[in-house]
Every structure is written in C-alpha cells, then in structure tokens.
Amino acid sequence: MARAPRYGPYTCGIDAALDVVSGKWKGFILWELEVHGVRRFAELRRGMPGVSEKMLTQHLREMEEDGLVHREVYAEVPPRVEYSLTEHGRTLNQALGPLGAWGGERMRREGLEAATAEIPQG
Amino acid sequence: MARAPRYGPYTCGIDAALDVVSGKWKGFILWELEVHGVRRFAELRRGMPGVSEKMLTQHLREMEEDGLVHREVYAEVPPRVEYSLTEHGRTLNQALGPLGAWGGERMRREGLEAATAEIPQG
DNA sequence: GATCCCCCTTACGAAAAGGTAAGTACCGCA
DNA sequence: TGCGGTACTTACCTTTTCGTAAGGGGGATC
C-alpha cells in the first residue's frame, strides 16, 4: 500500500501532500517538468532511464487528476502530447524545496551515491 | 513497492527524503514526537488510532536506523521505552513544514475532510 | 486465577505498487 | 517489406507493504 488513500481522509497536510507525491517516479517527473517547462512523453521517458511506459503514463494521469500536470494533446499524425506543470504543480515544487535540500544533506552525510549524472536537489 | 530503495542510489534529494518519510504512519510519528517531545510506545499507539503494534515498531525501528528517532530503553519491569526526535528528525520536520502547508492548502481547495480531531498542519 | 499492562515478535494473508512484454494504429524512411 | 518512431493500453506476474491474530514473559491489579 504505502499510502493507498488518494483523496483523504487525511490526518494532516503532510498526509495530503505525500498522497500526491508518492509514487516511484513522481518526484522525478515534477523535477523534469520544472527544469524543462514542457516535455513530450518520449522526452520524459528518455530523461528518466528505468521507467516503463506503463508507469510513466499511469503517474502522469494521476498527476493530471491531482491538478499538478497539464496535458496538451495535438491532433496530429504521428500524435504529439505535451506535458507541463500547472500552477499547483509549481507551488508543490516550491514546497518540496526544503525537503529536497534536507535529502541532499542526508545524502552527503551518509555518503549515499546519486544515480544519474544530473543531480537536481529540488 | 511505492519506493523500495532505502539507501539509494537516489536521483535527487527529494528521492532521498521521501525514502525516509514514506510509510503509512511515519508522518504521524514525526508529528507526535514533535508535539510531545518524548513519548512511550503505548502513548504513541494510543495517539494514532488504527495503527497496529507491528507497524508501529517496524516504523520506529526504521526511523531509528535512519537517524530520525532516538530510542531509550530503561531496564525496568515493566519495561519502559521512550522515543524522541533526534536533531535530524527535527530538521526533517522543519523541512516538511512547507509541504504540510501546501497539503493543507490542497485540502481546503479540494474540500477534503480531515480524519481526527487533532489536525496538525506540519 | 484471571485479566490487564508493558513492548514487542512471529506467522500468515490480502492488497497495492511496480515490472515485463505484447498489442494498437498510423506514419516516414530505406 | 521491414523497421523505427509517436503515445499509449492490456494482461500477467512479482515484489513490497500493510493488516490480523496470536504468543511471550514478567508484574500489578481485581
């Protein structure tokens, strides 16, 4: 489960926020969109090695439901879909800032390696 | 899984922080210890209705491993065990502040109810 | 003597999350 | 004709997480 609720009832704001962020790749998606502004599906996919198409679409749909991500579909062939952050997504990213800094500090403290070349610290 | 790693490799600080916070009751434990300073096992248990003893001990052990929680055992009969936040636990709580505020805002926005009488907002 | 309290541990099972692989439908390129 | 690219969907399976229920060992209380 980890956190199954999705849409409360919550015990506090942290609960409500974690419900929206937890998911193996959501933090990464948030970060990719923060950095690049707009990204297509395949760009996101290539940007985060290891993610499957299934998980990526699933996470993106949930984040769209949660009002964090905007999905723009262009009626073209071949299809083009662009993802970007909504206002709420951007404020969430700001709220995650201190947590990212804390995590970075922890990584330094514990000597935990980073996975990729790109090391955002939220 | 939700997030299985536990001790990296991480892609960023947010990853590293979420790894430590995710777990159904961890936010709540953090909050209880923040508010009360020191709490015994049974006090924590009573403070968060719905948690099982198994999950509570399991989460507390992990948080102890992660250096967030200090566990003090008194060689008495009946046994007495006191839990409190470490320095890292307290700084984590501070880093969670903005996230809790964001979550609270989201709850208000979406009209999501809170579960208990006590409504911390991290 | 029976029950309750303390702080757990263990075994078992259900549910959720995630991974793998294949299929869809259409197009451009060689 | 065959392959790669676009953005997915679906079915199936494994891993992880969480919950339930029971036990344990000693002491105090009824």
Automatic annotation (TrEMBL), chains A, B:
Protein name (record): Transcriptional regulator
GO terms of molecular function: DNA binding
Domain called HTH hxlR-type: residue spans: 12-111
Lineage: Bacteria, Bacillati, Actinomycetota, Actinomycetes, Kitasatosporales
PROSITE patterns, per the entry: HTH_HXLR
Alphabetized UniProt keyword annotations: DNA-binding, Transcription, Transcription regulation
Pfam name, any one: HxlR
